[in-house]
Amino acid sequence: MKAGVWGITVHLREDRRHIQDADVYAIRQERRIPLNLEMANASSIVKIALDVRPDEVCLVPERRQELTTEGGLDAAGQESALRPTVEALARAGVKVSLFIEAVEEQLEAAADLGVPVVELHTGAYCEADEKAAPALLQKLIRGAKLAHDLGLQVNAGHGINLQNMPAILRIPHLDTLNIGHSLVARAVFVGLENAVKEILAAMSPYCGGEM
């Protein structure tokens, strides 16, 4: 917060592999900065979210075998399961986001569910080789334009770092970038405050409109 971050994102997994319940409550008590809670659509976690009432919840897929979240949520295939959670969180005053792929089917499903925000999964692009990367970036650009046209706030995250940031900033209509692993890894070498300031500086040229 001292370094100027715009918000804190935490992922309370069902297996509690990362942050723990008490950490979520402790961070929420600060209330000096927006809290985004990443979570699966699991009843036990939904119950905590409704108790904590973070500023935003981002619904993500989870698999026990994964190291971190891999791929976007299948909003189109899980609309009936997601709708009660989205509606309950909205009634509690929590802004709901879906972590999804930048494809028409998923973006339209998000709009149909009534969520105000989507977070585009940038992982495939960030991990791609030079041959595959251009097409994946264009996919993100098209997805961001469609999301904007559907009236959705456009966030993005997964795999973003200082090296790929210039290309990520070619995606139009971005509101928020969620950056975790690369920032903390960089902090090992330069300290957390400097790592945050580097990321903020790298984002500063963004104009936000279509390029």
What would your notes on this structure say?
The chain has 211 residues and is α/β, with parallel strands linked by helices. The chain has one domain (8-203): Alpha-Beta Barrel (TIM Barrel). Helix content is 43%, strand content 16%. The chain has helices spanning 21-30, 43-52, 79-91, 104-113, 123-127, 133-149, 165-168, 181-190, 192-203, and strands at 8-11, 35-39, 56-59, 95-100, 117-121, 153-157, 174-178. It has a seven-stranded parallel sheet with strand order 1-2-3-4-5-6-7. 32% of the residues are buried.
- Report the average pLDDT across residues: 93
CATH class value? Alpha Beta
What is the third-level CATH name, the topology?
A: TIM Barrel
**Poorly predicted runs of 5 or more residues:** none
Structural class: alpha/beta
The strand order across the widest sheet is 1-2-3-4-5-6-7
Largest β-sheet summary: 7 strands, parallel
The portion of residues forming beta strands comes to 15-25%
- How many domain regions? 1
